[in-house]
Amino acid sequence: MAPPMSANEFLAALRREGATVVEVDGWRHHNRAGHGPWGPVNGVMIHHSATSGTDSTVRLCWNGYDELPGPLCHGVIAKDGAIHLVGCGRANHAGGGDGDVLKAVIAEKRLPPVRWADTDGNVHFYGFECVNRGDGEDPWPQDQLLAIEQVAAAICRHHGWTERSVIGHLEWRPGKSDPVGFSMEWLRERVRERLK
Predict the structure, then answer these.
(1) Bridge partners, residue 65, by sequence
(2) What angle do CA 128, 159, 88 make, to 5 degrees?
(3) Which among 5, 39, 80, 151 would be 20 to 30 A from 161, CA to CA?
(4) What is the pTM of this model?
(5) 4: three-class secondary structure by DSSP
(6) What percentage of the chain carries pLDDT values higher than 70?
(7) Are 151 and 76 in contact (CB under 8 A)?
């Protein structure tokens, strides 16, 4: 468990990891404060956006929609590898998920099969939407995959976590499939190597 990073700490951690960062105007104070707690934080969650196009995805993740107000993540990872920061603080990305999964993340152990949606994940996870339709055909360019690795490693390095603190939405909430197109074990191995 750890207190969340400040906006300055978050930005510095990403830049130290070599990430290309785009600061969307107002991101430092854009959050869901007043709609539940933010922290202690325990991990990083990766999503695919089920959209195409960077600008439209950034707008969607900033604004949200009628049923789910923004921000819908902390950063949008574009196909070119740029990380567009859209929020700092509580964000509507994880939703309810499996408390047993959270326990495994905290203990940095292998994740159990996801079964329930009994725990608020927006309290505990940094979230990143990666621009991809999630149809199994939309490609994942190397620059984008590198950026996902950098984001996850930057947060883990700051908090002293291992790669076991990086999960996919599909590992958290029943019925979710994201990210489609690469496995989380593959990503965790990349993060593990990067943290050496």
Answers:
(1) 68
(2) 40
(3) 80
(4) 0.98
(5) coil
(6) 99
(7) no
